[in-house]
Write a structure and sequence with these properties.
Layout (H helix, E strand, L loop, with lengths): L1 H7 L8 H35 L8 H30 L1 H19 L5 H29 L5 H26 L6 H7 L8 H7 L4 H19 L5 H7 L2 H7 L1 H23 L4 H11 L4 H30 L1 H20 L5 H15 L5 H5 L9 H10 L2 H4 L1 H13 L3 H8 L1 H9 L15
């Protein structure tokens, strides 16, 4: 009878206070990341109008692409650092350091005096932002129960969409405040640092990580003493980044998820990050205020994204990881021409932006849902960080290519559709991953 009651009770009743607190903390950290990133997307055009000479205005898409790409490259660097640190010093401590770092560096980016200084400061912000996500994804996966892990990951990931929405909402009110309005957006980004005071006391460290960390310390001590090591000891004593490539099974999965992550990341930064400026340009041609319509578009897009984040996680727990991810890739491919080529009415563009956000930005939830279930605890955060962040070392060219294509094609449509073909790659390689719905997190594969 007890077993039947457990099966029939709602999934959320199986969670304790610590698990809910952990979800809230990781969602909040990702929300702050989202605010900061989308503040850049919304304000980069306005900032460049202040930081560039008027004779350079025609090349603003190229400069904007360069600055976004610089942030993305920094994100990749910081993400790898954060993932490795999370495997060695703990999930909770790394999360706190990341939030403090990007709070301070975001405020510094408001002090840019030229487009070059803005690009450098954005790289530093990117390093700080990148170090938070893998930590949050790992600790949520390790603390939440197997049957609800997808839901937890989706609820964590929706923090990004909430942050994007919040940035769009704030920009609607801040944008009319003159040429320095973009600076105010980044000054507000200093506030998240205060939440680290609560995180320090409000959430536990991952017990799964603590057990593995003790084993790692013991294996390292045996190695230093010259004792004979078992295969498990060798795996634990190796540097986590090296261990990812030493194990053939881990290496194969790593290649597949790298290509999937590259698809999601390159497509989003190369296409969807230009949705607000695209709709703003349509509004400007109609005699309407472009920055305000960019804010409206950001809110519509990110409302859709929030639902997409949560939806992917919930659907993945019900029908499985693989079929849901395949649907999201296919729908994202279809929605690109719908938004950029086939819809011209401004009101319908907002609807199309919302649906596009559901599938293109909501698509990111496959990473916190699926990635932690594919790798053993000893390298989990490093593997998750590698899969999530290293594609940025390639994907950072997406905004550069998009900016150049937009400038050369004289518009967004053809550039967006061209880049969207990358979704085909993601769809194909997804077929080669194992289904992990409802299974315990692996200690070895």
């Amino acid at each position: 009878m007890a077993m039947n009651a457990a099966v029939s009770s709602p999934w959320y009743r199986s969670l304790n206070r610590s698990q809910w607190n952990t979800l809230f903390a990781t969602n909040l950290g990702w929300l702050f990341d989202g605010y900061e990133v989308y503040a850049l997307i919304l304000t980069v055009g306005v900032a460049l109008h202040q930081l560039l000479d008027p004779t350079q205005y025609a090349r603003i898409p190229v400069y904007a692409g360069t600055i976004i790409a610089t942030t993305l490259f920094g994100w990749g660097v910081g993400g790898m650092i954060g993932g490795i640190l999370a495997d060695y010093i703990g999930r909770k401590r790394t999360m706190m350091l990341a939030i403090l770092a990007y709070s301070l560096t975001t405020g510094l980016s408001a002090l840019a005096w030229s487009w070059g200084s803005f690009a450098v400061l954005r790289f530093i912000v990117g390093v700080a932002i990148g170090s938070e996500w893998a930590t949050g994804a790992s600790i949520t996966a390790e603390l939440w129960p197997d049957k609800a892990r997808g839901r937890g990951a989706g609820l964590m990931q929706c923090g990004l969409g909430i942050g994007f929405f919040l940035a769009s909402l704030v920009w609607v009110f801040v944008s009319p405040n003159g040429p320095n309005a973009w600076r105010y957006m980044f000054v507000l980004g200093v506030l998240p640092g205060l939440c680290t005071l609560w995180i320090r006391r409000g959430i536990p460290e991952s017990a799964v990580w603590e057990r593995t960390h003790q084993r790692r310390q013991a294996a390292t001590a045996r190695k230093k003493s010259g004792a004979k090591l078992s295969a498990d000891d060798h795996a634990l004593a190796r540097f986590t980044l090296v261990e990812l490539f030493a194990d053939p099974a881990v290496r194969m999965r790593l290649v597949i998820v790298f290509l999937m992550s590259l698809t999601t990341t390159l497509a989003w930064w190369g296409i969807s990050s230009f949705v607000p400026p695209y709709v703003a340009s349509v509004a400007a041609k109609a005699g309407l205020p472009g920055p305000v319509w960019a804010g409206y578009t950001g809110m519509a897009y990110n409302l859709g994204a929030i639902l997409g984040y949560i939806g992917l996680g919930f659907f993945a727990d019900v029908v499985g990881r693989k079929p849901v991810v395949l649907v999201f890739y296919a729908a994202a491919l279809i929605m690109t021409p719908v938004l950029f080529l086939w819809t011209h009415n401004l009101d319908l563009l907002l609807v199309a932006a919302g649906v596009n956000g559901f599938f293109t930005l909501g698509q990111y939830s496959w990473m916190p849902v699926w990635l932690p279930e594919l790798f053993p605890t000893r390298v989990r955060a490093t593997a998750v960080a590698f899969a999530f962040n290293t594609p940025r070392f390639v994907a950072f060219i997406g905004p550069l290519i998009a900016g150049t294509l937009i400038a050369n094609f004289g518009g967004f449509g053809n550039a967006a559709v061209t880049i969207s073909l990358i979704y085909i790659l993601g769809f194909v390689v997804t077929l080669f991953l194992p289904e992990t719905r409802g299974k315990p997190l692996p200690e070895r594969i």
